[in-house]
Amino acid sequence: MSRHDCHACDEYNELSRRGFLKLGGLALMASAVPAWLPRVVMAKNFVSGRDVVVYLYLRGGADGLTMLAPYGDPAYATIRPTLALTAPGGGANSTVALPNSNFFGLAPGMAPLLEVYNEGKLAMVHASGFMVSNPSRSHFDAQRFMEVGKFNDPTLFTGWLGRHLADTGAVVPGAQLRAIGVANGLQQSLVGSPKALPVPGLAQSSAPNYSITGASGTAATRLSRLNAMYSAVADPLRSAAETTQSTITLLNSIGFSTYSPVNGAVYPTTALGYAMKSAAALIKADVGVEAIAIDRSGWDLHASLGPVNGAMNTLMDDLARGMLAFHRDVIAGSNRNAVVVVMSEFGRRAAENGSAGVDHGYGNLMLLMGHRINGGQVFSRNQAGQAGWPGLGPGQLFQNLDLAATIDFRNVLSEVCANLLQNNNLANVFPGFAQQSFIGVTTT
Amino acid sequence: MSVMESAQAVMSAMALAQPGARPRDPQEGPSVERLVHRLTWGFTQEEMSLAMQLGYSQYLEYHLAHTAITDKLIDSYLGSTGSELQGQEVFATLWMTPYYLGQQASATNIMNALMRAMILRATYSRRQLFERMVEFWSDHFNIWMGQDDITQRLKTVDEREVIRPHALGNFGNMLRASATSPAMLAYLDNNLNTRNGGNENYARELLELHTLGVDGGYTQTDVIRVAKCFTGWTYWGSTGGGTGAPYNGYTFRFNANNHDPAAQVLFEGTPQQITIPAGPNNSAANISRGELVLTALINHPSTARFISRKLLWRFWGENPPEPFVTSVAATYAATGGDIKAMLRTVFNGFATYPPPLKFKRPIHVLVSALRATRARVTSLANFPASVQTPLVAAGQAPYQWQAPDGYPDTLEYWVGLLLPRWNFGASLMNSNYSGITVDTSTAGPLLAGASTAAQVADRIDYLFFNSQMSAADKAAILAHMQPVQSATVPSSTQIREAIGLAIGAPGFQWY
Q1: For residue A428, which residues of chain B lie inside 8 Å, CB to CB?
Q2: Are B7 and A353 an interchain contact pair (Cβ–Cβ within 8 Å)?
Q3: Where are the domains of chain B?
Q4: Domain that residue A391 falls in
Q5: Which of A185, A213, A302 is nearest residue B395 as measured by Cβ atoms?
Q6: Is the pLDDT of residue A385 over 80?
Q7: Which end of chain B has fewer CB atoms < 10 Å from its terminal CB, N or C?
Q8: What ipTM goes with this model?
């Protein structure tokens, strides 16, 4: 094993011991081996102290002002006369109360997350974004710049997670697959990661059919022919083929179809729910996957937002139930170190438009869920950078249009990276970002 | 590793990306072979012969004059407007008016017909450059067909009346047609953009994706003002309205009553600043205000560069040289957006700027495999229906990209999803796709008498790779065809699997 491969060995061994202690020891584990666990890793059960990160991206610009509604800001109802949610306590548009806030309320579709919030495992960061003077309201620029982790740099195309993974040794030495994008093309956030591959089939109801078609009797031979061909070409094709080959073996060793969530977890029967469930199976299989990127699109609701019983509500319900199931199954029920980070490229216009929708905006909501998330609270800041709310009133809106961003998302992700992913090389993960003190979304 | 180092490592890896030992074209100047690869949906020896016979320039002109190319097979499959040829019943929706499309019981059937026609045209049309351009513009003016009932029914009309008539025509005419296309207006919510309440969706993508590009010199203020100029641009409901009812159902409508006629200044403080003058209230003449915006966009130098760069990205390669972009943009400016003229500048520029190899997108892999193997349709009821699911697995079902930027065209995006590409070859040659057949009989047109492993490998090399298959690729398919025991020639199964492997080979992923 090369020195590079062993980069994380000591850490891994240490974490493994801690993992056993946390789970009550090897004997207990061995006696209750679920059938879906891949045989290949049964000998070395462990729990890493480096969190597995599930990066859940809401494509299209999710409306944070609905998801976590600032009903305590009087301007909110003024600029959204038909769409604003109201204070908890009945009424068709009322929010679900947070126990410790008389300012923010959850949209009804987000209500499943209240359980996680009350357990202290869900933190919400409002009015976040790139703190720059000229943010992009283009879906494509905004997504790209956020995922590469640097604003307005078209030359940088490796993602923040990709650089993090490239910069750290594998948690499981020799892991065949360190990052998975549940997508047709690898998400920009993961580009640059070693051993990373998109596997769209993980978002299907059935187990991912990740194998070569044609006669099964010759499948192995044909794969070896392809291996011979692709071994002779340059990257990125060669490494993609190599990872594809090992992923065929890996995914077929995990019994996705018989995977049983624990602790009362019920994943929604949607692409997002299936993806979260697949992520859970992968994490519990201990095969060394450290980052899983999942997308949920459909948030670009310029018309008929439907914050209570329309399109937005459906999307939030899907998201919240998927997260709740994952929390129950993986975090609360299996004591796994995993962190779920949820974000979107921008928030939407503070004021509603003429078609009961909202156009592209700026400041937005982030969600963080996990064992070591300092949850049960909303983090937000006023225009002066103190705890508070930037405001939706006249003179408070960014460019007179949008919720301002008063917490830079890179600050939040840097804290996750340093404290939960144990990578302090933040200048590499978020180049050019002037680090500030962390806002405290993690407990360590 | 620093950020720069890791970025450079990936970039140098991308720069090195070549299909193994495949040699660069040895000749000086633009290569006819490369031209065949670039302007078709897949190399065939028939196209190559034609190109060699006509020469570089005349072969290009042949394809640019697409209406002069007869297309009997496609006409017999699909039928055509104003033609006596009757297409297959399953494709009848391709030719229906918007009103009749609205009356169809099944929107799914309409979508299926359009997707399947796309695959058939790409594979079997002799107007190969035209069909490549149709694909290009369908990406450029992307409409996610599945979005809602309107897009499900009317993307067919957009393809027929916006994309196809102008694909080798004039960019401005296509833009104007797109701006009045009900499917586009519905997709980007402009039907909801009224004087009583704006909706910026169409206006933003019109500037960002259709014309100027995101860095093309517009501001958020311009988005808002352009949106106001397009208030009232909508479409009639399914049963139409006014004097044309009901047969003008689902056609463009300028609703003057919903138009905000206030004056708007666009691109303020730039050389392109323009004032769209105020109009009278509730006047049908106010449609000219949106038309003025379109004209301003068509004439804007950022549009010339944006369209030129995108054309080069598709037909030359990723990150085209800026001087090349400038020369194509100059053609745009000189000709007022003539697409054929721009393509001449693109393809003739290959002499000065030798094109890098380009990674096929999934549909391209499948279609080029069908072309290379001379696959023959046996049932239009079953094919192309039988490849729809494999295309979904490969990430590129036609007209199903949700966001308005169209399917990506980068190696970086597609390179991770290799398995479905391998499976195209494996499934096709295992006869898993119903309604289509590949004849691998020794005497058939594909093998043409080749019977030994070496002969078959040479034949595949010739048909698929113009006899430039990489040594590793060829060795692998040869190894797969080694006769067993007492046999002297490979079995039919071995041959078919070897062809499947050639489709999955790294060399076949490039063009």
Answers
A1: 1-3, 6
A2: no
A3: 362-509
A4: 5-9+52-207+255-429
A5: A185
A6: yes
A7: N
A8: 0.91
